[in-house]
Automatic annotation (TrEMBL):
Name used for this protein in its record: Hydrogenase maturation factor HypA
PANTHER family to which the protein is assigned, alphabetical: HYDROGENASE MATURATION FACTOR HYPA
GO BP of this protein: protein maturation
Family membership noted in the UniProt record: Belongs to the HypA/HybF family.
Molecular function per GO: nickel cation binding; zinc ion binding
Gene designation per UniProt: hypA
Functional description taken from the UniProt entry: Involved in the maturation of [NiFe] hydrogenases. Required for nickel insertion into the metal center of the hydrogenase.
Zinc is among the record's keywords: yes
Binding-site residues for Ni(2+), renumbered to this chain: H2
Positions contributing to Zn(2+) binding: C73, C76, C90, C93
Pfam families with a match to the protein in the record: HypA
Organism: Porcincola intestinalis
Keyword annotations: Metal-binding, Nickel, Zinc
Amino acid sequence: MHEMSTIVRMVNLACEAARREGGGRLRSLSIRVGAMTGILPYYLEKYFPEASKGTPAEGAVLKITEVPVTVSCMDCGTVYEPEKTPGRRCPRCGSIRGRVQTGRELMLDQIELEEVPQETGKDL
Ligand SMILES: [Zn+2]
């Protein structure tokens, strides 16, 4: 089960990024998870509250984008999702020789910070 360590790492990355942006709390963090990583988004969401507890990411919205496995055919260049084609073959030429294009991602994509009220310095 790698989900707990994965989400802890993502939370740390997000908090570091938030600090670099001047601090404040996180409103949301977006992560991309490739289907080949074996990481299940369900568990990332499940462990997120615990992983973010006591950090600026506590209470933030976790947005997970699942990236499907795509392969580009080494014979004709067609990009396809092998899981959706018969025999995992290229739908155009039938070749099984493919190069993985996407599906290995495991990354913090984006963070959104809560709006920090600006000091105007004006007395009423
Ligand atoms: Zn092909």
